UniProtKB/TrEMBL annotation:
Name this protein carries in UniProt: MFS transporter
Organism listed in the record: Pontibacillus yanchengensis Y32
GO cellular component assignments: plasma membrane
Transmembrane segments: 12-36, 48-68, 80-100, 106-126, 138-157, 169-188, 208-232, 252-270, 282-301, 307-331, 351-370, 376-394
Lineage: Bacteria, Bacillati, Bacillota, Bacilli, Bacillales
Keyword Cell cycle found: no
Length: 406
């Protein structure tokens, strides 16, 4: 089997694996705050606060482990990491169906963070198998698997939660996670593309960090990725509560699922196209545009008066914010040597997870103290600051992709 055919086969398998992983993980997101309410007679501020903390704690352990998995993947391969990640996630989610307190749920989501690196590791796997000039397109294609799962997951999760209850939904979700792990175990054949001017020699952790710090645009891309996650995830844990305020309690899990998943539809329509556009005109330009556009789209969310206005805005948001991840990953593929791409992506993912930690906690605290609208104002400010800051750095560091020595 030649490498071109093998690359297409691996991309197809990882597309389906990402579909199952993303779908499974987003199945439970719309009703996490509602699940917490079943543990006792709690006040709204209590539920909002613990929704943020329980949602965010997963990313605390992911923040710690992501660079470690990246470095292990660079040295020993990414297939084994993907398999362990899928099985670990399946076990954690299965056990969540049996918890009886907020603390138990909190602890399980903390342990879940150790294994929350499947999608980022799959990006590293496909990135190292893809020629640089089409990396944006390939990673955009992979992203559509992620967003298709994210699109369908909340809808299925909402329907399942309303039909069979929260506990059974967690148990059914764990089956999908296990299937994703089996796809990788039985189907993936790992290899990577080496180029003439890229050394295969191993780099120490100190050398990798030095490489990142001496490439200002790369460093800024990684930091801005954290800003994006803070902004995007600040609304996630309280979205169901916001939907409840706009729409009322009737079929709440279902309508929360629509609000979550509609962003995935916009993402699905444009993720591959953003990657293709970025391959043609430059990743930096596309990233600046997407950051500014996302910030502008978030702002009207503070002023919506019904559920369908919120749904329309989240669809537009999906079109813009969904292109950021594949374009960012393709940019790193361009500037980082093959032998350290996994670790560089690991540090980038770690910063994203740090944003995932800060975002839900910040969103929960802001919502409980100042109301839901304050979350939208903060989110808009972060994205606009990120976009303008990145644009200024580009003006000071005009060297484009391909100018960095590997």
């Amino acid at each position: 089997m030649n490498t071109e055919h093998l690359a297409k086969r691996n991309l197809l398998i990882m597309w389906f694996a990402n579909f199952f992983i993303a779908g499974s993980m987003t199945m439970v997101m719309p009703f996490l705050s509602l699940y917490i309410e079943t543990f006792g007679n709690f006040s709204d501020p209590y539920v909002q606060r613990w929704s943020g903390l329980t949602f965010g704690i997963t990313f605390f352990t992911a923040f710690i482990f992501s660079p470690i998995w990246g470095r292990i993947g660079d040295h020993y391969g990414r297939k084994i990491i993907l398999v362990l990640s899928g099985i670990g996630l399946a076990l954690c989610v299965f056990l969540m169906g049996f918890v009886t307190s907020v603390l138990q749920l909190f602890i399980l989501r903390l342990f879940m963070g150790v294994f929350t690196g499947f999608i980022s590791t799959s990006q590293a796997l496909i990135s190292t198998q893809t020629p640089k000039d089409i990396s944006g397109r390939a990673l955009g294609t992979l992203q559509t698997g992620n967003v298709t799962g994210s699109l369908m997951g909340p809808l299925f999760g909402g329907v399942l939660a309303d039909t069979v209850g929260f506990s059974s939904t967690f148990q059914l979700t764990s089956i999908s996670l296990f299937i994703a792990a089996m796809f990788v175990l039985l189907g993936i054949q790992e290899y990577r593309i080496e180029t003439e001017n890229e050394s295969a020699q191993p780099y120490s952790r100190k050398e990798v960090i030095h490489y990142i710090l001496t490439h200002p645009v790369l460093l800024t891309v990684m930091i801005v990725s954290m800003f994006v996650q803070i902004a995007h995830f600040s609304i996630q844990p309280i979205l169901a509560l916001y939907v409840s305020e706009l729409h009322g309690p009737v079929n709440l899990a279902f309508y929360s699922g629509i609000a979550f998943s509609i962003a995935g539809l916009g993402n699905l329509l444009m993720a591959r196209k953003w990657g293709k556009i970025a391959d043609s005109i430059g990743y930096e330009k596309v990233l600046v545009f997407l950051l500014l556009a996302s910030g502008i789209i978030y702002l009207p969310g503070a002023f919506v008066e019904n559920i369908w206005q919120l749904v329309a805005l989240r669809f537009l948001l999906g079109i813009t914010i969904g292109g950021i991840i594949p374009v960012r990953t393709a940019y790193i593929r361009q500037v980082a040597p093959v032998s350290i791409q996994g670790e560089v992506l690991g540090y980038s993912t770690s910063l994203r997870f740090l944003g995932n930690i800060i975002g839900p906690a910040l969103g929960g605290l802001l919502a409980s103290a100042y109301g839901f609208t304050s979350v939208f104002f903060t989110t808009t400010a972060l994205l606009l600051i990120g976009g303008f800051s990145f644009g200024l750095i580009l003006q000071k560091q005009p060297k484009a992709i391909g100018k960095y020595s590997s």
